[in-house]
Amino acid sequence: MVVYMNGQYVKSEEAKISVWDHGFLYGDGVFEGIRAYGGKLFKLRDHLVRLYKSAKSLKITIPVTLEEMEKAVVETCRKNDLRDAYVRLVVSRGVGDLGIDPRKCKAAGPTVVIIADKIALYPRETYEVGLKVVTASTRKNISAAFNAQIKSLNYLNNILAKIEAIEAGAAEALMVNREGFVTECTTENIFIFTRGTLITPPVYVGILEGITRNTIIERAQRRGIAVREEPFTPHDIYVADECFVTGTGAEVIPVVLLDGRTIGDGVPGKVTMALLEDYRALTASEGTPLYE
After folding, report:
1. Which residues participate in catalysis according to the annotation?
2. What is the pTM of this model?
């Protein structure tokens, strides 16, 4: 496997970062996950725009232009001869010292890494039978402390919730904010379908505005389904007709059980499966070509 490291393509076993890198020491950096389907990178530009916004919010100046980054992502996939892939793009503040002062990282500049490999977050049968989810006691970080719109390398909040899911024997954990409103799962956005309307939490409750989330909103509206972005609680999921999560790695996965409560009929709902079908058709037909 070949990895992009600061402008060079190196073998994966030779791809190393310094122990002084602030991404390693403090989680000081940003990342994106991007999927390739059938030789096309899906929503590449959208992911890169979000990456550069996240970096700007952290006052990290990415040393290559967005267009140059786009070419580097494509080339990394090509060098690994991949047509279906998961791309992890990481930008850290770079090499500094043991203190947290970001000015100490200016001399070396940011570290930029692009990894392209295959991924399978969930087995195929999960899409057919649905997920079992629990509500985590770990609350979502408040936006006043750290804005969830920044897709940062520090995922401890999410990891603690994931540990709760694992120990409860569930596939995922639902995270609520300080006020008790649903935000998202540990790596996915969440939707409910109830009384003919698709509802998802708004950005201001403390969620990452997902690329897949926005795509599903658009596809639902094309189908004539009413979509609302508004706060709701776990109770609203318990009594919903359908529920599903969305994410770059997960795509669209039905949720059939939350905290021991069966959602709807306890099987993937018709609207959920229709939107999954729409999403897969879209990923098969659109994207940035890897090979001309």
Report:
1. 151
2. 0.95
